[in-house]
Amino acid sequence: MPLVTTGPERLMLNSMLDRNRRALIDTAQELSDADARRRLVASLTTPIGLIKHAAAAERIWFQRILLGLDESECDGYASPDDGTFLVADDETLADVIGEFERASERSRVIAADFELDDTKTHPRAGDVNLRFIYLVLIEDFARHAGHGDILREQIIASPATPAHSTARPRPATYSPPWRP
């Protein structure tokens, strides 16, 4: 269950985005670096790649669109293409999680200086406001956390995963609705 279930809109949006950021990280926790890089689908989607992609999404929406920085001024990859999923050979899962956490923190700082109705222009979507940016990332990270859950389940169930692996099915971050 989300920690924040009532309150001002901005608090709710921040809380839900942070919840989905955490859910995405949780999908890769305790995986080895090798398992986090395993490609189980035809696309570039891997557990570590999903987190790398999310860090780029933070930079694209908050640094480039909201703040108006040029891609070269961003603190990491910020081009909306498949490169957002690419992880360098020398990057570990811990490195990529740290990158995502830093990008998320910078997004929080940037967003604090804007109102939900402040509008910027996205090159393809047209006019977008901060509220839309929150909503699109909440949706994006929730979807990718679902992808990550499925990949994690496949990795853990795979005969290629060592029996001594510390990875376990992740605890559900969603609780079914209360029923009387």
Write the layout of secondary structure elements.
Layout: H1 9-26, H2 33-36, H3 47-66, H4 93-112, E1 119-122, E2 126-129, H5 130-157
Antiparallel strand pairs: 1-2
Helix pairs in contact: 1-5, 3-4, 3-5
Question: What is the structure about, briefly put?
Answer:
This protein has 180 residues and is mainly alpha-helical. The protein has five helices and two strands; from the N terminus they run ααααββα.
The unreliable regions are 174-180
Q: Strand count, sense and closure of the main sheet?
A: 2 strands, antiparallel
- Order of secondary-structure elements: HHHHEEH
Q: Estimate the mean pLDDT confidence.
A: 91
In spatial order, strands of the major sheet run 1-2
Can you characterise this structure?
There is one protein chain. This protein is mostly helical. It has one domain: Four Helix Bundle (Hemerythrin (Met), subunit A), CATH 1.20.120.450. Helices cover 50% and strands 4% of the residues. The chain contains 5 helices and 2 strands, in the order H-H-H-H-E-E-H. Strands 1-2 form a two-stranded antiparallel ribbon. A hairpin with a 3-residue loop joins strand 1 and strand 2. Helix 1 runs parallel beside helix 5, helix 3 packs parallel to helix 4 and helix 3 packs antiparallel against helix 5. The chain is globular.
